[in-house]
Write a sequence for this structure.
């Protein structure tokens, strides 16, 4: 049995697969800010999800993984987790090998193998929710990287002259993420009914995607996250319209698609990821 973990900024989803092909309905809990409490809860929920079965391996997605894939980098979502031995403690609590990867990368892998990107060779996946993340997936495998992928931290404003919510903004994430909307409009994104706000987000996202497309040269771009799939949301037709007007390097745009797997994208990616890791382990 494989255990699948998707540790998000607000919610954690846990599921298990007995056949390596599909998984049951996930258990959902709030992501605890206290590291020790979170590990204890994951162990308890994993036991419930397994229903008495033995866990062979676990794949887990979490944001801001350090380069060695063992701990979390400094970031605002899990300040009490930074530097904690995440990999070691998960393996101890679960009693099984654990494979960690960035949560956005696993969501991208899920969409590439089982969702909107299926059938395309080179996928650029971008998620816009609490923050902005993503990954490049080629022929069903995540591209290797030295430090992971951080498309949300690409600089759009070189001199930092743009100001939102009283602070200087420069990165894509600081314009279009859910966090940015809360700071700018002092309300939850789904409460922002001003069409101009969403149109501006579409324009800014188009510039970010332009950079991603010319760097990664994908044949499909899959967009996910609550700021894309929610209601209201950043309108994809307007994103594509802006992209069409600014793209001068390539003769045509890649296919632009909305993610199809919803909250389960990271779990589908975790399933594909653990299968790949175990296959490599068997070959060695």
């Amino acid at each position: 049995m494989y255990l699948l973990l998707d540790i998000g900024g607000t919610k954690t989803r846990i599921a298990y697969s007995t056949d390596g092909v599909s998984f049951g309905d996930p258990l959902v809990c709030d992501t605890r800010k206290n590291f020790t409490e979170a590990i204890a809860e994951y162990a308890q929920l994993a036991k419930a999800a397994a229903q008495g079965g033995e866990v062979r391996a676990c794949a887990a997605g979490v944001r801001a993984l350090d380069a060695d894939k063992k701990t979390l980098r400094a970031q605002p979502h899990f300040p009490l987790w930074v530097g904690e031995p995440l990999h070691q403690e998960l393996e101890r609590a679960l009693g099984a090998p654990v494979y960690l990867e960035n949560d956005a990368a696993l969501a991208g892998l899920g969409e590439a193998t089982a969702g909107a990107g299926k059938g395309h060779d080179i996928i650029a996946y971008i998620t816009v929710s609490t923050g902005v993340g993503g990954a490049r997936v080629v022929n069903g495998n995540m591209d290797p990287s030295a430090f992971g992928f951080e498309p949300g931290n690409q600089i759009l404003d070189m001199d930092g002259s743009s100001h939102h919510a009283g602070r200087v903004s420069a990165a894509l994430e600081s314009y279009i993420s859910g966090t940015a909307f809360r700071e700018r409009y002092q309300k939850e994104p789904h409460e922002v009914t001003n069409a101009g706000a969403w149109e501006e987000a579409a324009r800014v996202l188009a510039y970010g995607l332009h950079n991603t497309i010319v760097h990664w040269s994908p044949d499909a771009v899959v967009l996910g996250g609550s700021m894309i799939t929610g209601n209201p949301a950043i309108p994809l037709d307007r994103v594509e319209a802006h992209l069409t007007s600014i793209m001068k390097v390539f003769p045509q745009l890649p296919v632009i698609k909305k993610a199809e797997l919803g909250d389960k994208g990271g779990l589908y990616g975790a399933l594909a990821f653990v299968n790949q890791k175990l296959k490599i382990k068997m070959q060695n």
